[in-house]
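Lecture notes, part 5. Sequence design as translation. It can be helpful to think of inverse folding as translation between two languages: the language of shapes and the language of residues. The source text, in structure tokens, appears below.
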């Protein structure tokens, strides 16, 4: 496998993990947002990953690679907790406020998993680079 393919696959996977991590951070930042209805309450966002086969063209980079990419971002449709607080500025006519459906612990797990995946791809790139450098050194002799 050529170096550009290794770097392309790892780079694409790192791009996908950055999107995953950014969404988790955004979800945590909006975890304490309240609304007057469950429809308008903040909904956690999730990335949808797709494999990229080696014959497909990555249009953004203009090269053929395999790996993974984020195809779209969807909203989590789980329920929004309702709290009775008639004094809250966002309370509806019945006195309820709706918080986001973000679970901070789940988001921290997502961030940790994304960071580990990112690190694994960095290590794959470093290993490929080291192997290539050893090959070059052997060819010099």
């Amino acid at each position: 496998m050529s170096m550009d393919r290794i770097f392309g696959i790892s780079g694409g996977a790192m791009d996908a993990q950055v999107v995953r991590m950014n969404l988790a951070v955004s979800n945590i930042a909006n975890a304490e947002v309240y609304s007057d209805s469950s429809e308008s309450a903040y909904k956690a966002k999730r990335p949808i990953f797709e494999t990229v086969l080696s014959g497909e063209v990555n249009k953004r980079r203009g090269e053929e690679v395999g790996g993974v990419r984020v195809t779209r971002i969807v909203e989590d449709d789980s329920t929004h907790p309702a709290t009775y607080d008639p004094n809250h500025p966002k309370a509806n006519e019945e006195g309820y406020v709706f918080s986001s459906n973000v679970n901070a612990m789940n988001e921290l797990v997502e961030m940790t998993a994304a960071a580990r995946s990112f690190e694994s791809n960095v290590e794959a790139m470093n290993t490929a680079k080291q192997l290539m450098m050893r090959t070059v050194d052997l060819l010099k002799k």
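The translated text above is only one of many valid answers, since several sequences can fold into similar shapes. The chain has a mean pLDDT of 88.
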